[in-house]
Structure formats: C-alpha cells, structure tokens
Design a protein that fits this description.
It is a single chain. With 290 residues, the chain is of the alpha+beta class. The protein has six helices and 16 strands. It is 18% helix and 37% strand. It starts with a strand and ends in a 9-residue tail after the last helix. 36% of the residues are buried.
Length: 290
C-alpha cells in the first residue's frame, strides 16, 4: 500500500499525532511519502528521512490514499494532488470545524484498521469547473466547495449577469455571487443563506453575496446546467475564487461554470454519516439557550 501525507502547516501539538501515524504505518510495512514543504517544517523539530513529492506530477495512480492532516482548508488544498491522479483522500482533522476532514486524531488507530481491512466507503464528491481557465489557476481550475466572484473594492458593487443553459436568469447587484456544489452547501454558501444539500445531490446552488435587492435569494439548479456569468462594474477588476484559491480578473469578462467530469473521492468510516456530521457540527438537537 502506498500512502502520501499532506499538510500545510505544522503545530507543535501535532507532532505526537504525526509520529503516531508514522509508527502505525511502519507496523504494516508502509513507508509514507511526504509533501516536501511539510517534511521540511517537520524536520525543524523531528528527524525524518523519507521520500517526498512537490507537485501532482511527482505522484501517480499507484498511490492508494493521500492523508490530509489539518482542517477542511487543508483538504481543499490536497485536491490538486489527489484529483488529477484519482487518489482517495482521508481527512484527519486537526483544525476546527471538520465537515470534510471528519476523522479525529483519537480515531487514527481505528481509521487505519478500516483502511487495511477495506471497511470504509469512498464518497464521490462532485466538482465544479471554471471556463475559460485563461491561465488564472494553472492546470487545475476545479473546486470542491464553490466558485465565487467577488468585488475587489469594498466600497463598490458588482453587476453579474447570469444565464443558465442560455436562458437569462437575473442581473445580480451586490458584493458577488457563488456557484456551490452539494459539498459546498455547508461552507460559504450556507453563511450567505444557501440551503444544505446531501453530498450525493445532483444540483448546484447559485448563491448571491450581500445582494442589493433584498428579495433575491439562492436558487438550486440541476448540475447538468451550464451557468454563464458576465461581470460588470465601475472597477476594472474583480476577484475569482476556487475554494481557498483566488485570482484577480478583468471586468467585462464572461465566465462559464459547470460540473466537472472528474470527482473527488473522500474516505468515510463506518458510522460517520453526513447527517451525523451536520447534527454534531451545527449543534442540531441541542438546547443551547442557557
């Protein structure tokens, strides 16, 4: 079995967890391959001699899993290495919320047992694709949560003309707009008033960001839709976001968003159902009045 380890940052309190992962893998004669910047930071405190990878070309489909060690943001960064090579991601949550990275540090022993005994589920999560890529995001123009359009100047508004499958929908005035996936329905879209969808839903959510017209609300469309966005405004540029990555684009640009052919594969352990996650993370069913 081949496993890659990815993390963006290293905190001293995580050293014990990382050493435990290495020790457990070693018991099964598995030597992990480390993301190079991650290993460099680890070796400021620990002495680990291991093979490394630096980009998605350094790993291939022979890898069985990529372990994402951090929060949901770290897992989103892992996509650029995992998706092109069709490698499943196991999210180990050392962050805060953990909608995507659902495996807590105290579950590591159990999680590895499940992997080795094939007692897990691979959830296929839909991605959204931005066209034209126009070189903004290199070779990876996909997002798991959402593609967002936001104003670059906090004192002005954008006008975003939206069409779905060639049919005009609306001109949105406000801070911006996002196209969210079912996975992203519990992320940025949720904070902007969007609905929660189960990960296997075949839909996309068009969610306005701080719309100037108070009657404008999010709308759900089939994920077979091709969504066209024409961005206008007083400013010469706006910000395009693919999950946690952002780039600046020029105004009067037309963008198209659609569901991507590729899928993200997320490891789900037995008992970690989506409904369990939202009950726990959103504190549903708890009396928090006192």
């Amino acid at each position: 079995m081949k496993i890659a380890l990815f993390a963006r940052s290293v905190h001293p309190e995580d050293f014990g967890l990382i050493q435990k992962i290495i020790k457990l893998l070693d018991q099964f004669n598995i030597t992990p391959v480390f993301y190079k910047p991650f290993l460099n930071r680890l070796n400021n405190e620990l002495n680990i001699n291991a093979e490394t990878f630096d980009n998605h070309n350094d790993i291939d489909q022979s890898y069985n899993f990529i372990f994402s060690i951090g929060g949901d943001g770290t897992l989103l960064d892992t996509l650029g290495y995992a998706v092109p090579n069709n490698i499943p991601i196991m999210g180990i949550n050392t962050g805060r919320l953990g909608f995507l990275s659902t495996i807590s540090p105290h579950q590591i022993d159990h999680a590895l047992d499940c992997l080795l005994n094939h007692e897990y589920k691979l959830e296929e999560r839909s991605l959204v694709e931005l066209k034209p890529a126009t070189g903004l995001f290199g070779n990876f123009n996909l997002a798991l949560n959402e593609i967002s359009i936001q104003k670059s100047n906090p004192t002005t508004m954008l006008t975003i003309n939206v069409s779905v499958d060639g049919e005009y929908l609306n001109s949105y005035w406000g801070d911006g707009i996002m196209i969210a996936t079912p996975t992203g329905s519990t992320a940025y879209s949720l904070s902007c008033g969007g609905p929660i969808m189960t990960p296997d839903s075949k839909n996309l959510i068009i969610t306005p960001i701080a719309p100037h017209n108070l009657t404008v609300r999010p709308i759900v469309v089939p994920d077979t839709s091709r969504i066209s966005l024409i961005i206008e405004g007083r400013e010469s540029s706006f910000i395009v976001g693919l999950d946690s990555r952002t780039q600046v684009a020029t105004a009067d640009t037309t963008l198209e968003v659609s569901r991507a052919e590729a899928m993200a594969k997320i490891v789900r352990l037995p008992g970690n159902h989506f409904f369990t996650t939202i009950r726990r993370k959103l504190a549903w069913g708890l009396d928090l009045r006192n």
